[in-house]
Design goal:
The chain is an alpha/beta fold and 348 residues long. Helices cover 38% and strands 12% of the residues. It folds into two domains: 255 residues, HAD superfamily/HAD-like (Rossmann fold), CATH 3.40.50.1000; 72 residues, no CATH class. The radius of gyration is 20 Å and the shape is globular.
């Protein structure tokens, strides 16, 4: 087994990355000796450390050249929570609530009425969640790219999660932030491949995760070019909507990356195809990891019967046969959001 001491040459760079990203190591942990201080010692942590050491060590028979070290991450439920609704849906709710009083036609829309009443069932029906896409489209389409970016940025600065009372961009998982920094310190390029809207995530992905917008793949619609009196404009539409979920994820990876990933991190059956594409028959040593939501006290506990998104049945059943590592959030994470876990519910 590769020891932590064998990682020591890489830890100076990692410490700088952790400091630059504002990450908070768990109490008593030393970033120079443990690259994943918010992870409890166990099989999941050991597997990740060993894997990264093997593929990044030039003397290892499993060494992979740096350009091929690509790690892909789902976002909702993998890098931050997705309850009670995905954060982009919360953004749509707030925008619809502000508009509904002044727009009777909008207020009468059945899906809008359901969303504002907190009834998610009609929105989540169907494999593509057409109802949810419909209400998101009502708040996204017709805006220029700049108008949409400004709206997302303003919302991120003021909106709070209803349970944790923190800004949404301050609810990223501390263990996953450490993992992102650790991978990059070892020559990996990290990509987001998510069912969320690409334009929504690109507003804050670099600031929040250190992942630049050009390394974000998500759900997209056709953008229309217009030459206006004040200059060129790109206008968002819902035409030719591509939903970056399930089988769409491998297709999008091929289209936008042009390389097969080396490591894949997800949390639901929506990530099953991406996990399969990354690991099954890959000529390079590959790693598949599933974040299993088992901690109802510090976060949420769900898999087979979530109230919204995040259903996890098929991928969990397939994990032992494929050798995918299942991260039990309650057992494997010493910290969830950074700092004292109890403070996440009441701190600003």
């Amino acid at each position: 087994m590769h020891t932590l001491q064998q990682h020591s040459l890489r830890q100076g760079a990692l410490a700088l990355l952790l400091a630059a990203g504002g990450l908070t190591p768990a109490l008593g942990a030393t970033p120079t000796t443990d690259p994943l201080p918010s992870w409890n010692e166990g099989a999941a942590k050991r597997a990740i450390l060993d894997y990264v050491a093997r593929v990044s060590d030039e003397a290892s028979p499993d060494h992979v050249p740096t350009p091929e070290r690509i790690a892909v991450f789902d976002n909702d439920g993998t890098l931050w929570p997705e309850y009670p609704v995905p954060f982009q849906a919360a953004f749509a709710v707030d925008r619809l609530r502000a508009r509904a009083a002044a727009e009777p036609t909008l207020a009468a829309d059945p899906m809008v009425k359901a969303l504002l009443a907190g009834d998610l069932a009609p929105l989540m029906a169907g494999d593509r969640h057409e109802g949810l896409l419909h209400v998101i489209g009502l708040t996204h389409a017709g805006l220029t790219v700049e108008e949409f970016q400004a709206a997302v940025a303003a919302w991120m600065e003021s909106a709070e999660h209803p349970r944790f009372k923190r800004r949404y961009d301050r609810l990223t998982y501390q263990p996953m932030q450490e993992l992102l920094a650790f991978l990059r310190a070892n020559g990996f390029k990290t990509w987001i491949v998510s069912g969320g809207g690409a334009d929504f995530m690109r507003v804050w992905s670099e600031r929040v995760y250190g992942i630049p917008p050009e390394q974000v793949i998500g759900t997209t619609g056709r953008t229309r070019f217009e030459l206006r009196e004040d200059g060129p404009a790109l206008v968002k539409t819902l035409d030719h909507l591509f939903v970056d979920d399930k089988a769409g994820k491998p297709a999008a990876i091929h289209q936008f990356l042009g390389r097969r990933p080396l490591a894949c991190f997800g949390n639901s059956d929506g990530d099953l195809a991406m996990l399969q594409y990354t690991t099954v028959g890959n000529p390079r040593p590959a790693l598949g990891v599933i974040v299993h939501h088992t901690d109802g006290d510090r976060e949420y506990a769900y898999d087979a019967h979530p109230k919204g998104t995040g259903r996890l049945i098929e991928a969990l059943a397939e994990a032992p046969r494929r050798g995918w590592k299942v991260v039990d959030m309650k057992r494997d994470w010493a910290d969830v959001f950074g700092g004292d876990p109890g403070e996440a519910r009441k701190s600003p």
